Amino acid sequence: MPTAWESLHFMRGAAEADEPMGSKEKWWVELPMLGERPWLLKLARLDERDGTVSGEDWAEWTVHQLAEQLGVPSATIRPAMLENRRAIISRSVLRDDFEYLDHGNSVLSARFPGYDQSVQGENPGYTPFAVRHALAEVAPPADNDWPAGFTAFDVWAGYLLMDAWTAGRDRHHENWAVVLRADERRLAPSFDHGNALGFQERDERRVRMLADEAHLMRWAERGASRHFVGQPKLTDLAWSALNLASRQARRFWVERLDEISEDAVRSVVSQVPRGIMSEVTHRFVVQLLVTNRRRLLDGYSST
Asked: Which Gene3D superfamilies does the UniProt record give (predicted)?
């Protein structure tokens, strides 16, 4: 059974310090009742068209729940309210003060001196092949029971499979990291999944897609990354990474995805209150996940 949707409420002044990376309003908060690690409070952005909440909060919470089903380590997410603003809190992926993050752009630059860390869109050096080499001496995430011989890149390829399944389009080079602890280097759990599940679409369009399977399929097939070389489709990007990973990694991730039933997906999505996610959006998200799962598994069968 997925974790229940239970919002935590905050007042202004609870935040400690701004988080400089990214474009959302966000602050670190200490929550002793939830453990010693700090949590990043992120406000859901407002749609510039009409001031409605865009849906990044329910998208990020839902992807975290789905990541747990798939076996992808990810930052723990809880829904929240900052006074009258919808938000989420994301638990730090660092276990204590002896660890810190080295983001992907820095990891790639250390391996490839000519890599441009500052590029915000499509980066000519950003490919799964480059990431595999950059992670060559990095261990998989801690606190997971990985198959023997699993590499950090084997796990990272699973992150891209999750992105393709959930229509996550924001796997830029600062949206993954390596955890450094003394001489130890481990891939960090996945984080920052708000740009997923068609969170920005209007219900009017979702209704049209639900009524026309071909329309939904066309929408899903257009999903692409604007960060990797060539701006590849999400499914192509996932298979590119999985084909560079070990054979056991391909089998592991495909089997995990294959085991997830529509009922399991529905049980996750149904936890989001109708006041946060409309009935139409509930139905759309379930159908999108069912469609993308089928597309990915069909792609595996064809290879």
From this structure: 1.10.1070.20
Q: Rounded to two decimals, what is the model's pTM? A: 0.93
Residue 227 in tokens: 């960060």
Architecture of domain 100-302: Orthogonal Bundle (1.10)
User: How far is CA 40 from each of CA 24, 85, 88, 151, 266, rounded to the nearest angstrom?
Assistant: 11, 15, 8, 28, 28
Structural domain boundaries in the chain: 8-91, 100-302
Helices (H) and strands (E) in the chain, counts: 10, 9
50-55 long-range contacts (CB < 8 A, ≥24 apart) are 53/86, 54/199, 54/200, 55/197, 55/199, 55/200, 55/277, 55/281
What mean pLDDT is reported for the chain? 92
Is the separation of the CB atoms in 225 and 195 below 8 Å? Answer: no
Confidence at 48, pLDDT banded by 50, 70, 90: confident
Mean pLDDT in residue range 193-205: 95
Whether residue 282 is predicted with pLDDT greater than 60 in this model: the reply is yes
Between the two ends of the chain, the Cα-to-Cα distance in Å is 33
Do the beta carbons of residue 238 and residue 303 sit within 8 Å?
A: no
In sequence order, which residues have a C-beta less than 8 Å from that of residue 113 and are 6 or more positions away? none
pLDDT band at 24 (very low <50, low <70, confident <90, very high): low
Residue 301 CB partners (closer than 8 Å, separation 6+): none
- The answer to whether the CB of 178 falls within 8 A of the CB of 138 is yes
88-146 pLDDT, tens per residue? 999 999 999 999 999 999 999 999 999 999 998 999 999 999 999 999 999 999 988 89
Confirm if 210 and 279 have CB atoms less than 8 A apart. Answer: no
Token output for 162: 């999750």
Give the integer Cα–Cα distance in Å for 24 and 11: 18
